[in-house]
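Example S7 (structure tokens).
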């Protein structure tokens, strides 16, 4: 990757974006980021590409090169609306697969193929078939945090933002919901539908504890605690609010808590904090090692080399796409994906 000869030779676009992240990126570190940002902005135009970034992406990605940001539901919806020929998914592999399912004619790239997910790897298509054999006739709901192979075996998908609505939309007394055991348990507390769960967990959210919340409240009186529904049920019960990443962000926007903690991935707090300087963010968070595999450097490389392209067998894709489209057809309140860059 060629280095920029000297700072004065850069066009001002990258430097103009620094105001978005100055509170989390020291000025002395910015020139390193700016070189890749400048290249990515040019490459997007050359390739007719857009970058979709999940809320867990680091601020230098989320606030400078991303065209669309949001939670998994918002990104799934937005993937169907983009006009660009190329989609770069700044997130994990199942998100890139979902974008490809919904855009079979477009080129979908993931900057690092190792960007996986503990939930997606906790279940296989064979596991789903076994669950269906054990519970014949019971509808199967798959969290979007699953592979295309798994999505192809289920009736409908859901996200953390629409899980209850999806469960209740089926109009049945019992469903199978996989692979996140805690999400299933948390939804089960909000509905009369019996939920049969799978024992998969998110390695980020499963580590939070109710004791940690008690300690936070003792150390920071008046703090508002927001938890992701992938957290254990006792953590959700001890929080002031539980919801998807989009719902947590909206809570901060609408409720204006003076002091808040987000029990989710670390970069989520960084990204929300940048938009709410009047709120104090307490930062006990857990890093997602898979999300952190996505960097400005490998986004740039992805656009330079058009790698790594996501491909799915057409027959399998048709079945998996149907489960995602059924989810998207269910009307639920949602936070829209946010356009963040007009460059």
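Recovered sequence:
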């Amino acid at each position: 990757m060629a280095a920029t000869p000297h700072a004065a030779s850069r066009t001002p676009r990258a430097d103009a974006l620094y105001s978005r992240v100055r509170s989390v990126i020291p000025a002395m570190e910015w020139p390193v980021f700016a070189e890749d940002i400048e290249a990515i902005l040019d490459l997007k135009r050359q390739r007719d590409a857009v970058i979709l970034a999940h809320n867990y992406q680091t601020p230098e990605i989320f606030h400078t090169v991303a065209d669309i940001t949001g939670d998994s539901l918002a990104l799934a919806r937005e993937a169907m609306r983009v006009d660009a020929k190329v989609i770069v998914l700044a997130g994990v592999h199942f998100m890139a697969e979902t974008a490809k399912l919904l855009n079979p004619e477009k080129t979908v790239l993931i900057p690092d193929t190792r960007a996986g997910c503990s939930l997606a790897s906790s279940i296989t298509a064979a596991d789903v078939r076994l669950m269906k054999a054990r519970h014949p006739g019971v509808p199967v709901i798959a969290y979007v945090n699953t592979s295309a192979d798994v999505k192809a075996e289920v009736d409908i998908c859901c996200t953390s933002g629409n899980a209850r609505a999806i469960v209740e939309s089926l109009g049945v007394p019992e469903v199978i919901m996989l692979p996140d055991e805690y999400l299933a348990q948390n939804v089960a507390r909000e509905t009369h539908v019996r939920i049969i769960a799978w024992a998969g967990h998110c390695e980020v959210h499963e580590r939070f504890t109710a004791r940690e919340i008690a300690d936070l409240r003792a150390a920071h009186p008046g703090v508002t605690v927001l938890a992701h529904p992938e957290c254990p049920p006792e953590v959700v019960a001890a929080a002031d609010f539980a919801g998807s990443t989009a719902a947590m962000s909206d809570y901060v926007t609408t409720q204006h808590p003076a002091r808040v903690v987000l029990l989710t991935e670390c970069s989520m707090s960084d990204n929300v904090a940048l938009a709410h300087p009047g709120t104090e963010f307490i930062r006990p968070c857990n890093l997602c090692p898979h999300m952190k595999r996505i960097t400005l450097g490998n986004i740039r490389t992805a656009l330079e080399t058009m790698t790594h392209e996501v491909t799915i067998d057409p027959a399998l894709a048709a079945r998996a796409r149907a489960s995602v489209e059924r989810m998207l057809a269910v009307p639920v309140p949602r936070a829209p994906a946010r356009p963040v860059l007009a460059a």
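Notes on this example. DSSP finds 15 helices and 13 strands in the chain.
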